[in-house]
Specification:
Elements (H helix, E strand, L loop, with lengths): L3 E9 L4 H14 L3 E8 L7 E9 L13 E4 L2 H7 L8 E5 L13 E4 L1 H9 L5 H13 L4 H10 L6 H16 L11
Helix pairs in contact: 1-4, 1-5, 3-4, 3-6, 4-6
Amino acid sequence: MNKRYEMRLTGSGGQGVILATIILADAGLMAGKNILQSQSYGPEARGGMCKAEVIVSDGVIGFTKVIRPGFLLALTQAALEKYSQNLPPDCLVMVDESLKLPTCLEGRKVIAIPILRTALEKVGKAFTANIVAVGAINAALNLASPEQLEQAVFRHIPADTKELNRRALHEGESLIKSHPLQSLLEIA
């Protein structure tokens, strides 16, 4: 039986959402999974709404559109409002702690963590929020090993930012390890 898992990451242009999905897709490939990555954003590339998706499968990916996301990340309020509508009941939602949850998410598995604040205060650079999110996502979903994820990050960032991004990745992992939600999903 073909096991398929669909992920949607959202935010605004310039937050690195697309790069985050590229890194997750690369890590998934290293982990031996079949992967498809896609993205879209508004005409205002920076600041406009952005959506990027990853499909993970143990078989052939015939249909390339996300229709039943098992995971949603939202980094902005506008993205959360738009993409939290009509989610499957078992979809795990990860949001930055600064966002106000819409009523449609009441009773759902929601992980509200300080992604943006962690990037700024603990890593020291706001632009690392996407890598903080990647670390948190992988820790929650077990898409790839931590070593594979780190290797994927390093393949897609400037070489002189390795240590900064390594710190961001580990801070993201720590956010999940200290989170009270016990029944996180696993893609593996």
